[in-house]
Design a protein that fits this description.
The strands form four sheets. This protein has a seven-stranded mixed β-sheet. Strands 11-8-9-14 form a four-stranded mixed β-sheet, covered by helices on one side. Strands 1-2-3 form a three-stranded antiparallel β-sheet. The protein contains ten helices and 16 strands. The relative contact order is 0.12.
């Protein structure tokens, strides 16, 4: 089976090709980004989404900005402003800024150098996804006796959200390949339905049995003993192990805590932000009100109604059973730094402030 590629550089057109995730599962359409404005729009509208995929888009976006700037005669300051617009297009997911910042030092060596570094980032991310999936699956199989396993997941952290394979869905795929997976409950993930539109679509491609459930059913499903473990991705993980992920993740964690079920977070080390001490310091993105007040283009609320639409929530480390990266699996306690998750020999001071 051909791996899903959410973000790709087109070397012929020198543009970024994105799999338009706003149109899935009904349409499989490539969204072509030939300008910074178009890329920023794609990021804001969730044409591309998921922390690792945003990191790749950010890195490639620097090359895109350089090409556009050369064509339009931008000054260095104007180019920097456009790159900052990419970096800041979504504030909660740390990987977007990380991807931009990783390739920025290569700009002095030209577009080719930036593209080479972006390609290295993409290769490393997919490898990391496989490694963390193996580590996470090992931890779950040691922690949970029941076979076959029944898993809950929230939002989408599969190949669509990464450069390939996936994080939380990557662990699910690994468990499936090991022959120990029975069923996945995919929470629909209101209001944009990333679980029902994207995760279920991916799981069908992989031949993994899946039931879509409402977000409001998640805690009940856990308390009724219908699942053995919940696995989610992450958009930013603070130094103490607090985890920012799609809104509704905290409800899943609370339900699992009440039921005594492991709640596992899967993310590449690039999602660990050691410069952010706790989840209280993570900026939570507010999305447009119309996403809640309308459904499929039809108004579903009174005309004068207002909406509160946070895109993410923060799960305190005390509700997280384990965090898996490509380097390690850590059981956070909310106090001790999760430095081990970013690899050996990497100190907190080596991380730029990405808040």
């Amino acid at each position: 089976m051909t791996e899903i590629r959410a973000v790709q550089w087109n070397p012929v057109t020198m543009e970024i090709d994105l799999l338009d995730q706003t149109l899935l599962p009904g349409q499989n359409v490539t969204f072509i980004c030939g300008s910074v404005d178009r890329l920023v729009d794609a990021i804001a509208r969730l044409v591309v989404r998921g922390a690792p995929a945003l990191g790749a888009a950010g890195a490639l976006g620097v090359a895109l900005a350089m090409i556009e700037g050369e064509r339009k005669g931008w000054t260095d300051d104007t180019l920097a402003e456009h790159i900052d617009a990419i970096r800041d297009a979504r504030p909660t997911a740390v990987n977007l800024a990380w991807g931009v910042d990783r390739v920025r030092p290569f700009m002095a060596r030209g577009v080719s150098a930036v593209l080479d570094e972006a390609a290295a980032l993409i290769t490393e991310d997919e490898r990391a996804n496989h490694d963390l999936s193996s580590r996470g699956a090992d931890w779950i199989m040691a922690a949970v006796d029941r076979r076959p396993l029944r898993v809950m997941t929230h939002c989408n952290a599969g190949a669509l959200a990464t450069t390939g394979w996936g994080t939380s869905v990557g662990i699910i795929r690994e468990l499936h390949l090991r022959g120990v997976l029975e069923l996945v409950y995919a929470n629909e993930t209101r209001p944009l339905l990333q679980g029902s539109r994207l995760t279920a679509w991916e799981l069908q491609r992989y031949g993994i049995p899946c039931l879509i459930e409402t977000d409001g059913a998640a805690a009940s499903t856990a308390l009724r003993g219908l699942i053995d473990v919940a696995i989610i991705g992450a958009d930013r993980i603070a130094r103490n192990g607090d985890v920012a992920n799609k809104i509704g993740s905290l409800g899943v964690a609370l339900g699992c805590a009440a039921a005594g079920i492991p709640f596992v977070v899967a993310a590449p080390s690039s999602t660990i932000d050691l410069s952010t001490a706790t989840g209280d310091d993570i900026h939570i993105e507010l999305r447009p009100e119309h996403e809640l007040l309308n459904f499929a283009g039809v108004r579903v609320a009174p005309e004068d109604a207002r909406a509160f639409n946070p895109a993410f929530d923060v799960t305190p480390a005390r509700y997280v059973s384990a965090i898996a990266t490509e380097f390690a699996v850590v059981e956070p306690d909310g106090v001790t730094s999760v430095t081990a998750l970013v690899g050996p020999g990497i100190a907190p001071e080596s991380f730029a402030d990405l808040s």
